[in-house]
Write a structure and sequence with these properties.
This protein is an alpha+beta fold and 193 residues long. The chain is built from eight helices and seven strands, in the order αββαββαβββααααα. The strands form two sheets. The chain has a five-stranded antiparallel β-sheet with strand order 2-1-7-6-5. The radius of gyration is 17 Å and the shape is globular. The N terminus is likely disordered.
């Protein structure tokens, strides 16, 4: 029986089917102290209020879909003040191989510190996907955890303009969701997400 912290590189938090924390690895504890994810009364919660629903929805997708359907879900999280915080990847544990966990539906949340998230080079994104400079800049910001509003604030442009740019990025990358887009870019450019 391999302990979850050995299996998941000491950056993991193991949750049961209701999202209650069963185990926190040592390196995950240090990541939790960085103001973008916290454990409150045994429940893992993003510190930025707007990220909480997305995190809960991602966890539900991982826990309640049939085994073998799709892979892990990766989502960026922000700090309390809305700046990029870190990235979490949610995995569903297989009850056949992870018998030490009592719940038939358990998940692992692998936590990556902000400094491990590499911002893709916008020029490379432009060349690879045929993006404009503004589209590549938006995509690079999405990968490191900014949302539409955060990118708009950073570039001092309207969120409507960012959403319009995002639609163009979706069309050029043949995606239709930010999560899928981020996963595609990180796989393509080998970012540590």
């Amino acid at each position: 029986m391999t302990p979850p912290e050995a299996t998941y590189d000491n950056r993991a938090v193991v949750l049961d089917d209701s999202g209650v924390v069963l185990h926190i690895a040592e390196r995950a504890t240090r990541a939790l102290a960085q103001d973008w994810l916290e454990c409150i009364e045994g429940t893992l919660t993003p510190t930025y209020a707007a990220d909480r629903d997305a995190f809960a929805a991602a966890l539900a997708r991982v826990l309640y879909r049939p085994l073998g359907v799709s892979g892990p879900v990766t989502i960026p999280l922000r700090t309390r003040d809305g700046m990029p915080g870190g990235v979490v990847t949610l995995y569903r544990l297989n009850p056949r191989t992870d018998r030490e966990l009592h719940s038939p539906r358990s998940a692992v949340v692998a936590i990556l510190k902000p400094e491990t998230v590499e911002r893709p080079d916008p020029v490379s994104l432009m060349q690879f996907y045929g993006l404009t400079k503004s589209e590549a800049s938006l995509l690079a910001d999405l990968v490191v955890g900014f949302d539409v509003t955060g990118h708009a604030d950073r570039r001092q442009i309207s969120p409507h303009t960012v959403r319009s740019t995002l639609k163009s990025v979706f069309a050029k990358t043949h995606t239709n969701r930010q999560t899928t887009l981020i996963q595609r870019v990180t796989r393509t450019f080998d970012a540590e997400i």
